[in-house]
Design brief:
CATH superfamily of the largest domain: Gcn5-related N-acetyltransferase (GNAT)
CATH topology of the largest domain: Aminopeptidase
CATH class of the largest domain: Alpha Beta
Number of strands: 17
Largest sheet: 9 strands, mixed
InterPro entries: Acyl_CoA_acyltransferase, BioF2-like_GNAT_dom
Keywords: Transferase
GO molecular function, one term: transferase activity
Shape: elongated
Protein name: Acetyltransferase (GNAT) domain-containing protein
């Protein structure tokens, strides 16, 4: 392996790319101990060559529960660790099934609500679940990643945020496919019939699962898809004898109800202490990084990040395709005897893409009325443009949209 060439051209690396993608931490670390389980999960001897002679290497986002050892190169190699962000994890070692986890971490009312989301989703649609782990075809993988990209584009347009993975999509896609077939990654999918409506990609190392990328069809938002796929992930992880689900950093407001571990991220500055230039460079970078994160956490405590996010949303100009997030301009209940005659209405089917804009309102109606998509009729007014009736067994609503010709 020609490691020296790459080191001379790169002085800043990302830990998870080395750890989860390349599966090789040479020449930076010789051993990794998972402090959650107190097990050695990485142990490699490195040939006695001065790969890092006169070098300063910065490795970003190392979870502090992974305790590292660096090579002993003539006793000159040193490491400085600077704390950065918080990360969030679920320790599942003590649970034998999903019900034990839910009982210990959620109250009775919360457990009932979670069950209601899943039961209602399954009652309203033709739902099935599948985890791809150890085997997936190239065609199926490409189809799922195209669907995942479409979901992410629509979701982040709705949130008025940019998404890092979309900016590096081809690289990410090429990375994941071989890992699934080697049982180093998994893809969990919720299907409505043949259509994926929720996709979650997880990277795997030893008994650790890293929940790295997920999204859902926002037309199904009423069913709390994120909660359902989290339950399914925890259930699958327990059944397959994993020990920790790492939810990584960010979005604490969503993750806080699931986690039972908070850890810290670190930036590692590995340098050759026999070189004055490396000592100066490493210490300068480490001190700069330390005070940057002190300021970051101070501003966060003062809620400056909320002002920043609100500002970004106001000036948001995403590098994404235009996606219709249309909502009805009126929505009201209607009694059976107020529904017009069949001469003034025509039944339509949602398999016609021209009616895609109806799905969000229809699925919200299914959730609130406990109806099934198989029994609800969609009736379009013949004379009143963009006006529809969702006629169920128990309830009906009339929905009107703005002119769609310019959409």
């Amino acid at each position: 392996m020609n490691t020296s060439k790459s080191v001379t051209t790169v002085d800043q690396l990302h830990f998870f790319e080395l750890f989860l993608a390349k599966r090789n931490l040479e020449p930076f670390y010789t051993k990794i101990i998972n402090s959650f389980s107190e097990k050695i999960i990485y142990d490699r001897s490195i040939p006695q060559k001065n790969y890092l002679s006169k070098k300063t290497i910065i490795i970003k986002d190392v979870p502090d529960y992974l305790e590292v050892e660096i090579p002993n190169e003539n006793n000159s190699l040193k490491i400085k660790k600077i704390s950065t962000y918080e990360g969030f994890a679920i320790n599942i070692q003590d649970y034998s099934n999903i019900n034990e986890y839910l009982s210990e971490n959620f109250g009775k009312a919360s457990r009932s609500k979670l069950r209601r989301y899943q039961n209602r989703l399954e009652n309203c649609f033709n739902i099935s679940y599948k985890t791809y782990y150890g085997e997936i075809s190239q065609d199926e993988f490409s189809f799922l990643f195209n669907e995942l990209r479409r979901m992410l584009e629509k979701r982040f347009t709705q949130k008025k945020e940019d998404n890092y993975e979309l900016q590096n999509w081809e690289k990410y896609q090429n990375l994941i496919f071989p890992l699934i077939n080697d049982k180093k990654a998994s893809v969990f999918v919720i299907y409505d019939g043949p259509k994926p409506i929720d996709i979650c990609v997880n990277l795997i190392y030893d008994k650790l699962i890293y929940s790295s990328l997920s999204s859902y069809d926002i037309n199904y938002a009423a069913f709390s898809m994120g909660s359902i796929d989290m339950i399914k992930l925890i259930e699958w992880s327990i059944e397959n004898k994993f020990e920790t689900i790492d939810l990584l950093k960010g979005y604490y407001y969503y993750k806080q109800k699931w986690i039972n571990k908070i850890y810290g991220y670190q930036n590692h500055f590995i340098y050759d202490s026999s070189s004055l230039r490396c000592v100066f460079h490493a210490n300068f970078k480490a001190i700069s990084s330390k005070y940057f994160y002190i300021l970051f956490h101070l501003l966060k405590r003062w809620k400056f990040h909320e002002l920043y996010h609100n500002y970004k949303k106001k000036i948001y100009k995403p590098n994404l395709p235009e996606i219709d997030l249309n909502q009805p301009i009126s929505l009201s209940p209607i009694q059976d005897n107020d529904i017009l005659s069949e001469h003034e209405l025509i039944e339509i089917k949602l398999d016609n893409s021209k009616y895609d804009y109806l799905k969000k309102a229809l699925y919200d109606f299914l959730y609130s009325s406990h109806e099934s998509v198989n029994t609800v009729k969609i009736l379009e007014h013949k004379k009143k443009q963009y006006s529809f009736i969702f006629k169920g067994k128990l309830k009906n609503i009339e929905v009107t949209y703005a002119d769609q010709t310019s959409k």
